[in-house]
Amino acid sequence: MVDGSPLPPFLGLTSWAAFAPGRAGVAGGDGQGDLVLFEDEVNPVMSELRPASSHGATTS
Fold first, then answer.
1. SS3 at position 1
2. Which of 17, 44, 48, 51 has its CB 3.0 to 4.6 Å from that of 31, i.e. a possible disulfide?
3. What confidence tens digit (pLDDT) does each residue in 24-59 have?
4. Do the beta carbons of residue 35 and residue 43 sit within 8 Å?
5. For residues 46 and 42, what is the distance between their CA atoms, to the nearest angstrom?
6. Shortest CA distance to 60 belongs to which of 25, 34, 31?
7. How far, CA to CA in Å, does 29 sit from each of 33, 35, 39?
8. SS3 of 56, please?
9. How many of the other CB atoms lie within 10 Å of CB of 36?
10. pTM for the full model?
11. pLDDT tens-digit series, residues 2-20
12. How many CA atoms lie within 13 A of 42 on its CB side?
């Protein structure tokens, strides 16, 4: 909610994923998304996303 009004999910998150046959039986895939955050939400969200970088994910 923002100022008492509901915020539909499509206004705060966009994402997509693509999958393709991998090599040697290992599936390949890619996903991207955008988050719309308030200033005070940025650091907590980035802190949660950063551990994914050890699995090949990137954040910016």
1. coil
2. 17
3. 777 777 777 777 888 888 898 888 877 776 666 666
4. no
5. 6
6. 34
7. 14, 20, 31
8. coil
9. 10
10. 0.47
11. 678 776 665 566 777 777 7
12. 5
